[in-house]
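step=predict obj=Dyp-type peroxidase family n=463
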Amino acid sequence: MTDNSERKAQILELADIQGTLLRQRPWPYTGAYFLLRIDDAADGRKMVRQLAPQVASAERWWDPPNRAWFSVALSHAGLRALGVPQASLDSFPPEFREGMAARAARLGDVGESNPEHWDPPLGTSDVHVALSVFAPDDAGLQSVLDGAREALNGLPGVSVIYRLDAHQLPTGRTHLGFVDGIGEPDIEGAGVASILQTQAGGDHYGYLPGFGPTIKAGEFLLGYVNELGRVGPMPQPDILGRNGTYVAFRKLHMRVAAFRRYLKDNASSPEEEELLAAKMVGRWRSGAPLVLAPEHDDPDLAADPQRANDFAYRQEDPRGLRCPLGSHIRRMNPRDDLSDTFVDVKLHRALRRGATYGPMLPEGQLEDDGADRGIVFIFMGTDLVRQFEFIKTQWANDGDFVGLGTEKDPVIGDNDATGTFTIPRQPIRRRLRELPRFAVTKGGEYLFMPGIRALNWLAELDA
């Protein structure tokens, strides 16, 4: 039982929180991810010292000069390379110390997604620092990149070992054709439901329906009370851990042609293909949810932020006749589906940021052209096991929690062409078979995104 003080809204230290954590990326966007290796601790600390002032805090996010999205995160090996004391390194949780590649089998990264097939240097001990840089246009991106390059200038002990450019597709959607980024959790004190960006950039709205109950800040920020009614374990010293979070970085290659062929092979018309795609995802490509638009797409509904996310499953679609129980969005956020079980959905939510990379496959093309295209997923939360790994192992790659046995997420699950996907309907359900893998993991990292004071602490370790 939490006491009255824990039920009071917590005040977030916005000036110390990297803006990326609490605010969505710019829209439209262009950007890049960089991975760095530190071979000299002094140069690494100097780099952090020079990068820290360029990280916009959540407090300053809406200031016009700070419309760009810039963040700094480090691997466990990177913290060691900076000279973080061993006692501090040991205070991090074991899954972070092990790294994502070491936990690949648990996450379903097997077969083609096995780390032995990942893009180098992802999954290796060479990855020390990860930078993400996003802006609304090329000029804004170049401005931020120039500042980052200046911070690295004259530091031979720091090298850029990987770059992945990302950009919004002309459609404004993912490579599979779906609107993305819907249904983020509302964080107590600064959630996406209370502060939303418009395409014009930065308008403020009141709370929108459909985001579910507000979730305690401690689920996403270290140093605050979480949904268990306590402050969770935090890396030491406190200045290092407070206002930080853990990051799961995932590069997923999307097999767009295979997805299109599967729809075509299992539908009798283009209209049925669209319905099948919507059943697999749980929303039409426009973003309109099947629970509210079960038979036909409704772009007007999708474009209305007051309606597009305002639905529940148990109340409106308990049997999955509209939105299948095993669809992608119903797995990633079961909402009230598990209200009569011992699973508290609020304990397993994670912030998610995504960006597309690679060229579009031409509309209607059913054969793969060999290009690398897909999406970068960024998951953020204070407990990698309870949040990200639970979502991957229990919700994406298992079906028991919704009574579907061995069925997996039809879009991002580790399917192997032997899987099935069940579509409830009356009088007889439909079961799709030979479900292939549409998302192939090309790399991943577990990272720690420190608060801004922590960045400065890291920079002064030699002082």
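step=describe
Confidence is low (pLDDT under 50) at residues 1-6, 191-207.
step=end
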